[in-house]
Design goal:
6-stranded mixed β-sheet; alpha+beta; disordered N terminus; 344 residues; Metallo-beta-lactamase domain-containing protein; Metallo-beta-lactamase, Chain A; 7-stranded mixed β-sheet
Length: 344
Amino acid sequence: MPVAAFAGPVHVSHHPGTPSLRAVCRRPPRFSASAPVRRPENAPGDLYVDSSCIDCDTCKWLAPQIFHSSHGQSAVYNQPTTPDAQLIALQAAVACPTGSIRTTKPSRIARDARSSFPLAMPNTLESTTVPDVFYNGFASPDTFGGASWLVIQRGDDPCVIMFDCPRFFKPLSKAIKKMAEPLGGIRYLVLSHQDDVAGHAKWASELGAERVIHKRECNERQGTTACEVQLEDANFPYTLMEGVELIHVPGHTSGSIAMLHRGTQSLFTGDHIFYSQREDRLCGARYIMHSREELVKSVEKLVNIPFLHGWPGHGGHFHFSDEEDRITQITSAVKFMRDSWKPW
């Protein structure tokens, strides 16, 4: 599978014979009534972020050496020049929930960027990828750019599990099914909480997946009352299958759940913890709908959860060198959250 390269640009135009980003990834609907324009905060050059950006962080964690925050939105601060950098920038453009990353010229690798998803993800502590973990890209504006993940469950009962939903896009669905079918297909769609469920019914129908969610996150408006598995507090920790456990992590919402995958030593965290570029450390959810104190407790319980790779719904993914490093960093995050953390 393609790998996130961590560096890079993109472009958009309508030259004959060369696909634009709009053509290859269906630019999502705009939030602004006025036509978006190039932000003046962008560095001079081909790649830019326009004024429709919602500052969801997707581009900044995918390509931190290209994008940063400036005055409440993302901007390009380093124009990429290498092929790898150009590819990762195009991947960020495809992943962008609002189609806000643009270029002034057409790209001959636009389709390559689109077809690179699901994307194998790197371990930032090493020059390797984390085996069997993939980012789906195609973030949805309805989840504020929330990340969706795939993880391969190997062993005697193999399958693939999807965690949270990307924007529905037929070519992505075909790519996911092509990857998953030799491995037993997509068996479960785990929904971390109500913010990141957009498109769940379509994805479950397309993939033949069983949806799993906390019952308190279900509602008629989002159609999640139809989810096949609805868990309650007494069910946790819940063994989804051998080596896969669901953990109740209330705080951001009352029914938020994370998923521990022992085979890859991965924790899919939803919105309760992430790596903050601004703070340069692990941090709890910025926006709290339920309880600050419960969120701190949910982060603290991760001290005893055996994982080395964290894959969040928003913000940067994070990695530990070993158990001691995990304990040290999570303990530090808990202290920060109790002493000086200022959520929204």
